[in-house]
Each structure stands twice: as C-alpha cells, then as structure tokens.
Design a protein that fits this description.
By secondary structure, this protein is an alpha/beta fold. The protein has 11 helices and 7 strands. The protein starts with a helix and ends with a helix.
C-alpha cells in the first residue's frame, strides 16, 4: 500500500477513536445528570471493584466475586432500560465492531479489517483521476429521509447544496462570500462536490488547484526542509480547493503554522479557498487552535456549511454485500 494512503488512514482512524472516546464521555455525563439512579449503581459498582482490588493487594489468594459483578452489571442494564436508554448505552462506542476502529483484526494473526481495505480503495482514487462533475451528480443516491435536526430530506438538502456549489463555480470571481467550507461526517458527498467545483472552474478557464490536505502538508514540508519548493501553486491558484482537511499529519512547527500562513496570504490577496473536512467545528478548533479556526469560520469571508445525513458509501457497500 502507498505510504501516503497508509499515513492518511492511520490519521483518520486515530481521529475516529478520539470521537468514540468523546461520545462515550458525553453519554456518561448525560447519564450522570439525567438518570441519577443509573449513576448511583455505576458508582456502587466502581466502589465494589476498588474494594476487590484493595483486598487482592492485601491477600494474594483473594478471588473477587464474579457473581456480584454480574449482578451489578445486570442492575445497571435494567436501570438504563427503565430510564429510557438502550441497555448497551454505556458500552464502548465503535464505528466498526470487528476492529474497534483500529483497522486491524486478530491478536496472534493480525490482518487489515474489511473497513480499512474498503477505505484504502476509496483513497486510491486520488485527486485528479476521478470523473466527478455537476452533470454526473446523481441526487437519487441520497435517501428520502429527514436527518435529525433538519426539516427537509437528505436528498433535497443535497440538491440545494449542489445548486449552491454550481452557482459558486459559475459566479466566480464575483461569488460572495469568497470562500466555502463543507464539514460533516464521511460519505455524504463533500469531496464529490469539491471535485465538481474544481472541474467547472477549470472548464471556465480558471486555475483551480484541487489537492488533499495530506498533500498540502507534504508540499509545505518539502519546502520547509529545503527540498523541492512547489508551494507557489498553492499560493497563486485562482481558487485553492483542499479536500479532507484533518487527515493530514500533525507536524510540530509545520502543519498549523503553514496552514495559517497559507490562509492568511490567500485572504490578503483575495484569492478564494474551498475546504472539505470530516471534522466538526469543535474538533477543528481543538486540532488547529482558535487562531486558525477563527479564520476558517469567518462568515464574512467564508460560507460554512454543515452536511448531515446517512453515509451513502456504507449504504452502497451494504447493498453490494446483499447481492
């Protein structure tokens, strides 16, 4: 496997594990404040475990009561259900149950998980080798269901987003705001739309530079260490489109500083940028610091769009498995 793809996968899976941990903590805090009886049982179980540990340290022959632990776990599950939660609500959160979001399965014989291989195949379709366009955009791949917190279906929302992105590309250089940031979970069509925008701009004769965030940092790193300096294409392009922001490696004194410099220089020259990212707004702030995030989220200069709904890639893979 190409090292660039492997590094990008490692970073993507690391971020997913961070999201899992944050969700687990959010659920525990929700239970603590909304289901006090459940929280009392959890506290009692923790006290029991700590007591068993102290007894084991004092007496090497001590055996903890597995029956007592089973009863405590069962009581917590029952209390969760009575409080209106699934009995598994406080269990570890994973996107993939097979590998627990590590990308690797097995203890003695270790092998790449199906989810890892599937994502690697997707990443192998690198920027510039794909045939996305507004004309080929198929709204029918999106479900006719209404995402949580929205009032229209995912299909209608993507129809509107497609129209906005097409208008953005058609109006350049008069589009306002100048920049655009699409954020949301993976598999919602963000990268496809970025490719569509780049293709339309190129068809109109403009220099649209479409590049992954991973390759942005690779170019910056090479220049930083005195190797090939190819940064001018990032600074000079009519429109710079950066795909998968957040999947690049975090390198001390390079990643954040170089991205900050790039955004500042292009903004000062009024040269537009378009970003896609799987991170949410809080994750962007934590990863890039408020200093850079505030520039990305400056709504006077950037149209910030949250994309929500069902992962259409997972839906497609499920349909293939059922055939």
């Amino acid at each position: 496997m190409d090292r660039r793809i492997r590094d990008q996968l490692n970073e993507e899976y690391r971020l997913q594990r961070e999201r899992n941990a944050a969700e687990e903590q959010r659920r525990r805090e929700e239970i603590r404040t909304s289901a006090p009886r459940v929280w009392t049982l959890i506290t009692q179980r923790q006290d029991m475990i700590e007591r068993f540990c102290r007894q084991a340290l004092a007496d090497g022959a001590f055996q903890p009561s597995e029956a007592a632990l089973r009863e405590a776990n069962a009581a917590i599950r029952d209390a969760l259900v009575q409080a209106g939660y699934p009995e598994t609500y406080l269990e570890p959160v994973f996107r993939c149950e097979k590998c627990r979001d590590t990308g690797i399965m097995g203890d003695t014989v270790r092998q790449e998980c199906d989810c890892w291989r599937r994502r690697a195949f997707e990443l192998a379709n690198t920027v510039g080798q794909r045939d996305e366009s507004f004309e080929r955009f198929d709204e029918n791949v999106f479900p006719e269901t209404v995402p949580k917190g929205r009032t229209i279906t995912q299909r209608e929302e993507m129809r509107r987003l497609r129209a906005y992105c097409e208008a953005y590309a058609n109006r350049y250089p008069e589009q306002r705001p100048r920049d655009m940031l699409l954020y949301g979970a993976s598999g919602l069509g963000k990268s496809y739309l970025l490719h569509c925008v780049a293709r339309r701009l190129q068809e109109r004769g403009f220099q649209a530079e479409l590049i992954s965030a991973y390759d942005v940092i690779r170019v910056m790193r090479d220049a930083y260490f005195g190797r090939e300096d190819d940064t001018q294409r990032l600074y000079d392009a009519d429109v710079l489109l950066i795909d998968d922001l957040g999947m690049e490696p975090m390198m001390e004194n390079i990643t954040i500083e170089q991205l900050f410099q790039l955004v500042n220089v292009r903004r000062s020259r009024e040269l537009p940028m378009v970003f896609s990212t799987n991170l949410d707004t809080e994750e962007i702030r934590q990863r890039y610091t408020e200093r850079l995030a505030s520039r990305l989220f400056d709504r006077t200069l950037c149209q910030v769009i949250r994309v929500v709904g069902e992962d259409i890639r997972q839906k497609s893979h499920s349909a293939l498995r059922e055939q």
